[in-house]
Design brief:
alpha+beta, globular, single chain, Beta-Lactamase
């Protein structure tokens, strides 16, 4: 999958999640390419466009420990229950070195999961995972 198609797929999936949940599940997301010495932001959408990069490493710290422990395969995802505020709540591996990080800047996953609408809202995220598993971001 190319970057434009990946971005379109992410926007569509998060839009469907918002519709099913009746409010945004994630109001911020960033698509990154990770390299051994540095990474690159491929796309971002959210309320902190001017400031998220300065805190990015700190904001992914709760997820980073989970990701490194599991060694995610392409299409695998991880959620962190305890991430609050600017800390990212979810990660999806999109390709060999590409990841999607998602965040709700006002709620933790514990709070999001309290709604009965969460069960339906997570289906588009799982479907997005399957898209990248079969057609990884290059």
């Amino acid at each position: 999958m190319n970057l434009a198609d990946a971005r379109t797929a992410v926007i569509a999936a998060l839009g469907r999640m918002k519709s099913l949940y009746a409010q945004p599940v994630f109001d911020e997301w960033v698509l990154v390419k990770v390299a051994s010495e540095q990474g690159a932001v491929l796309a971002y959408d959210g309320p902190r466009a001017d400031s998220y990069q300065a805190r990015f490493k700190a904001d992914i710290a709760p997820l980073r420990a989970e990701i490194e422990a599991r060694q995610l395969a392409i299409g695998d995802f991880e959620f962190v229950n305890t991430a609050h505020g600017t800390h990212f709540d979810a990660c999806l591996r999109l390709g060999k070195a590409a990841y999607l990080f998602c965040n709700n800047t006002t709620k933790s996953m514990i709070e999001i999961r309290q709604s009965p609408l969460w069960l339906a809202a997570q289906k588009p995220f799982v479907e997005l995972s399957g898209k990248f598993r079969s057609d990884p971001l290059e």
